[in-house]
Amino acid sequence: MEKNSSLQQIYGVLGYPAKHSLSPLMHNAAFKALGINAEYKIFEKRPEELEDFLNSLFGENIRGLNVTIPYKETVLKYLKWQSPEVRFTGASNTIEVEDNNYLKGWNTDGIGFHRHLTVDLKFDITGKNVIILGAGGAAKAVTDQLARKKAGGISIYDIDKNKGLELANKLNKEFPECQAIYVDTVDELDIKNSDLLINATPIGMKENDPCLIDKSRIHNHLLVYDLIYNPAETKLLKMAKDKGARTSNGLGMLLYQGALSLEVWTGQKAPLDIMRKVLTEGLKK
Ligand code: NAP
Predict the structure, then answer these.
(1) What is the per-residue pLDDT across 100-125, written as a single tens digit (0 to 9) for each?
(2) Quick check: is 72 catalytic?
(3) Which residues line ligand 1 (CB under 6 A)?
């Protein structure tokens, strides 16, 4: 069976729930700007619907998917090809659908983070010491990329010791030149000698959430990056700003992971300014 290229191409985000995703706004604006006859939809699928859905993508003229909670790991068994980032993280956020439903899996989260770090924040990770709070899906994607780009050291703290240790061990095995360690408590983190502090936990999304790091430990040579983008300024970011540190929320990562997905699907350069504009407006609603 061949793809019918005269048909409108379909893309979308697969998740459950998925209806609050900002991806349709970003990608539909991008397709319009690029003059591509495509529509980006929301595919909210229950677990029992997943297999049929993934097996029928090519037949339905669906050319690409973003994958979100809770399916980033589940989709791996349907992939015929996996990028190095998918192999490291065990998760895929971008699927490319080729002829005869040949599914290729990418993970653009970590690359998106790194792109934002270098392109917008002008931060060169080479040889730098990084602290990351959290060892879940996003932390895996981000640390994988930072180690690939030759970070000097990565210190990990997670409430779940097993997860933290597992990530540190994996990084050390895969990237021996980048020293990864797990620490049992936030007090053991050597913030004084670090250049970049990343929050990859969900702590900070809710108004009553605590701040995991004490204000007295933040210094003004630090870049504090919170992967959370809603709220735009978490307690951690506000505190870091008060102490004179550079700060960033996760909106740039969201933008660049989307831009990279679009580039995978279309082979075209993503219209970043338009995507950024609709994302920012969408978040205000
Ligand atoms: P996840 O897989 O659930 O990972 C979060 C990790 O943080 C888990 O290991 C969790 O442990 C740990 N944790 C929770 N509370 C903690 C605490 N008090 N102290 C230390 N560790 C704690 O979630 P994720 O997908 O990685 O997402 C993490 C955050 O990044 C979320 O806020 C998400 O919205 C954000 N994110 C942003 C982008 C972007 O594009 N900007 C992309 C992906 C994710 P338990 O499992 O034991 O609770």
Answers:
(1) 999 999 999 999 999 999 999 999 99
(2) yes
(3) 109, 133-139, 158-160, 163, 200-203, 205, 212, 227-229, 250, 253-254, 257
